[in-house]
Structure formats: C-alpha cells, structure tokens
Amino acid sequence: MNSYFPHDSNARNDAKILKVRMKYGAEGYGVYFMLLERLRDDSEYMSVKDYNMIAFDLRVDASLIKDIVENFGLFAFADNGECFYSESFNKRMLIKDEVSNKRAAAGKKGAAKRWNGKAIAKPSSENSKAIAKPPEDDGNKSKVKESKVNKTKRQQTTAPVKAAERPAEEPSSSSSSILDICNFWEGNGFGQLSPFTRESLVDWVDDMRKAGSPEPEKLVLNALRTAVESNVRNYKYVNGILKNWESKRLLTVAAVDANDSERKTNQPQRRYGKPTRNEKLPDWAEPGYKPEHKKVSAEDRARLAEQLQKLRALGEKN
Questions:
Q1: What are the C-alpha distances in Å from 245 to residues 71, 176, 239, 251, 252?
Q2: 119: helix, coil or strand?
Q3: How far apart are CA 95 and CA 182, in angstroms?
C-alpha cells in the first residue's frame, strides 16, 4: 500500500482531462496518470521539470509531456519554476497521510500500553547481544490459571461498544476539515472508513463547495450529526439530507437575469460527460417552409439545355 493513491472512476470526464483526451486521445490520458504515479513516488509529491528525462522514462515525446504539464491547468509550479506538482493530488494524499499517521500513532500508543513500559529485551553486561528476559513476577505460577485471567481481562477491556453508546466527537466549527469528518464517521458507528468511503466524503464536500455552499465541511458534519440524532447511520440517508438542504438553499437564491439565462441556454449540451454540438436547422427543414420561385431567363434556359445535352452525350458514350 506504500504506492497507493486515490483515483476517481470518472476522472476521464473531468473538464481539464477531457481537453487532453480530445487532443491526444487515450495516449494523453495515460501520460497524465503516469505523471501522477511519478509524483506519488516522490517524498514531497513533486517532480523536477526535466521533460527530456521524463519523456525517456515514459517512452513518449518530450513535447507531449511539456504540453500536458503546462497548457491544461492540471499541474502547478514551485516558486522557483524548477518543479511541478498537482494541487488536487496533494489534497487527496494529505487526507490519506493524515489518516495513516493517526492510525500509526494509535498503534504505538496501544503497544506501549500493552507492554506497560517493560523492556522486551535487555542487554547483558557480559554479552553485547540482547537477551529476552521475562518479567520478575513471572515465577512458576500456573500458566493455565494465568491464561484464564488474561483472557477474562481482555474480554472486559475489549468489549465492543454499541454505536448508539459511542460519544459523538464535536470538532469546533472554526477548524472543521476532511479529517474531522473522517474521525466523526468512524467514531459514531457509520462503519469502517474504507478508501471508497473516504473518497465519497471528499466528494460530498467538493459538491457542496461547487454549489456555492459556505463552509461545506461544517455542512457535512451537521448532516452526520442529524443522522446520528435520527439513529440512521446510513450513507444514502446522509446523502439525502445534504441534497435536501442544498435544494432549499438554492430556492432562496435570487433568479438569474435574462442575459445569464440566455447564455446558459446557448451553451452546448453534455451527454454522458461529452459535449454535443448544437446546429441550427436550415430554412428548408423548418415547418411551413415555402421555396422561393425565381424566374429563369431565356439565356439561362438555353445554357442549361446545352449542359444537359452534353451530359446525355457523355453518358451514351460511356
């Protein structure tokens, strides 16, 4: 999992990536994700702007690498201009790293608590090699009896807590973040925080932000709290709450003016994520069309008759 990074299943339909696909096809799409893989391998998620070296690694032309990095808005550059990175990729990796670090810290804390500060192995003064020593109170007590006592203690300390009995974490609204949402999700009985679930939580926040909602992280947290209060810890239920709130918010927004409405009407429609072209029907295809009758002069008639006679003669010859 050290090389893992999140990947949206509909990334191909992103507006910026769609432009890459329109110009370079599947090759451009593949080069973009190979660039992300190179960023993932770097400890700071950045890459030196050496297009010739990158082109040699990916076995493509350097001009293709340069165009995708610089001209589609998919990457940003460091202040010195020598390195490039992806802001959206860094945001996703920040969430992953925060969750991983939190779990690692919890694991170390749990290990320290289990051993209760006792050394696993102590070096001998006569030998530099570490020799494992049991605790002093180990003695010759009955191991059968000790195992029963330890088993009872573990059952008492690790008894599962029902979802309704878990205390709800209440992060402050001023510091609400994706990590707060993830912690609330795991700590209030919504289920295990898998990579798919974490991506869905990020998508919730992104959708709220794109819709113009202020403090989208706080909005998602409030929806989760509402679900906990209703004792319905279900993904679809929370999603329905967010959609209901957003629809009510949109009803309070003032109607757009006529020019804006006309501009949106004239925009090309999208079908399955792909733009479609609106073409104006010709006059003859409109209902009620009547062809315009023009008078043909005697000279035009003679010229047309002459051309028709030549065509007939050519057909008979062939």
A1: 38, 19, 10, 10, 11
A2: coil
A3: 9
DSSP annotation string for 155-197: HHHSPPPPGGGSPPP---GGG--HHHHHHHHHHTTS----HHH
Instruction: Return the structure tokens found at 66.
Output: 């340069």
Question: Which segment, 59-68, 195-204, 285-294, is predicted with the most confidence on average?
Answer: 59-68
Beta-strand relationship, 121-123 and 130-132 = antiparallel
pLDDT at 137: 52
DSSP 35-100: HHHHHHHSTTS-EE--HHHHHHHHTS-HHHHHHHHHSSS--EE-TTSSEEE-HHHHHHHHHHHHHH
Q: What is the distance between the alpha carbons of residues 57 and 271, in angstroms, rounded to a whole number?
A: 36
User: pLDDT for 49-104, tens place per residue?
Assistant: 899 999 999 999 999 999 999 999 999 998 888 899 998 888 888 887 777 777 77
Q: In Å, how far are 117, 126, 143, 150, 157 from 154, measured between CA atoms? A: 18, 38, 16, 6, 5
8 A C-beta contact, residue 36 and residue 87: no
pLDDT in tens, 102-120: 777 777 777 777 766 554 5
- Are 77 and 69 spatial neighbours (Cβ–Cβ below 8 Å)? no
Q: Compute CA distances 207 → 144, 196, 312, whole Å.
A: 58, 16, 68
